[in-house]
Amino acid sequence: MDNACKILVVEDEIFVAIEIEYAIGELGHEPVGIAADRSSALEMGKRAEVALVDLNLRDGATGIEIGRELASRHDVTVVFMTANPTQLGDGVPGTLGVIAKPVADSELRDAIRYAVACHNEHMDAQPPARLQLFMTPGGQPGRGAHG
Q1: CA–CA distance, 137 with 140 (Å, rounded to integer)
Q2: Which of 4, 32, 48, 84 has its CA 20 to 30 A from that of 24?
Q3: 23 burial class (0-12, 13-18, 19+ CB within 10 angstroms)?
Q4: How many CA atoms lie within 13 A of 36 on its CB side?
Q5: What pLDDT, in 10s, does the model give residues 97-122?
């Protein structure tokens, strides 16, 4: 795949993480690894281009901070995946958006495709219906984001 990306999974539920990692590989992308806490996520994030980040991890509710740091320090395209999207309020600056769990396999794959397209600056990419955007690929606020 020409636009293959290195994708990090930040998730402490191992079976969920393995399913996500499998979908990443099936789509022709390279899984960077599975991080279950802040320190491992930030270490592995140095090698990632895209990250799928849960909010509540082994070390507590560190997902928001992880997403913010991955985006600002390493220019990683971040999509949050959580059962509690309201924890994100109006969004996290610098991150792409959130998809609510549970997520169907097809929705997960669509979210991965969209995040990769945004990372690769394909401005014509259409977001999946269940992905609440914080900002568009051009850096403008997306649907569900407030200024």
Answers
A1: 7
A2: 84
A3: buried
A4: 8
A5: 999 999 999 999 999 999 999 999 88
Tokens encoding 74: 């390493």
Q: How many CA atoms lie within 13 A of 66 on its CB side?
A: 35
What Rg do the C-alpha atoms of the chain give, in angstroms?
13
Of 63, 29, 33, the C-alpha closest to 47 is 33
pLDDT at 139 over 50: yes
pLDDT tens for 13-66 read 999 999 999 999 999 999 999 999 999 999 999 999 999 999 999 999 999 999
What is the tens place of the pLDDT at every residue in 64-103?
A: 999 999 999 999 999 999 999 999 988 998 999 999 999 9
Interior CA angle at 46 toward 30 and 26, to 5°? 10
Count of residues making up the chain: 147
DSSP label at 138? Answer: T
Instruction: Please report, as a single letter, which amino acid is at residue 101.
Output: K
Residue in this structure with the two tokens 């609440």, named with its chain if needed? 132
